[in-house]
């Protein structure tokens, strides 16, 4: 009986260690996706970068009180700047907190963003703020579902 108790304890300990390792691995995976998204935003512009990671039914919060529920807004902004031209702003960010659900298919990130925009006289104006994003693993790929 004593041996059975020891085996049970070892099994539970190993299971918990694997679970913790898996959770950390998922966080690192989501962090890499988030950082690649920020890097792509700096390189080719925010909307083309978002087009690569957004879920088809993404919920976007604009600067007003509207929630947009699909890719149409993103695609329209990509069309506004054809042939590699870029909008008059650059935005990058760095996640400070990353969490992934125990199910492994839903996660969120938040951190600080930096946006640089040209003013009416062509000078750079930089603003900083907090962001929050929600991600869902769809067919094995992390997709942005709320931003």
TrEMBL record:
Domain DUF4440, residue spans: 30-144
InterPro entries in UniProt: DUF4440, NTF2-like_dom_sf
Protein name: DUF4440 domain-containing protein
Pfam families: DUF4440
Domain of life: Bacteria
Organism expressing this protein natively: Niabella ginsenosidivorans
């Amino acid at each position: 009986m004593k041996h059975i108790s020891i085996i049970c304890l070892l099994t539970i300990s190993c299971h918990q260690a694997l679970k913790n390792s898996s959770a950390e691995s998922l966080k690192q995976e989501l962090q890499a996706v988030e950082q690649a998204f920020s890097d792509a935003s700096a390189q080719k512009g925010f909307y083309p970068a978002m087009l690569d990671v957004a879920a088809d039914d993404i919920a976007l919060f604009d600067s007003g009180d509207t929630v947009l529920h699909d890719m149409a807004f993103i695609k329209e902004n990509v069309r506004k700047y054809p042939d590699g031209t870029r909008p008059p702003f650059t935005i990058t960010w760095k996640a400070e907190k990353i969490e992934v659900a125990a199910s492994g298919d839903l996660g969120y990130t938040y951190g600080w963003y930096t946006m640089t925009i040209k003013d009416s006289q062509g000078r750079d104006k930089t603003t900083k703020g907090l962001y929050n994003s929600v991600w869902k693993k769809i067919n094995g790929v992390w997709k942005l579902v709320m931003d």
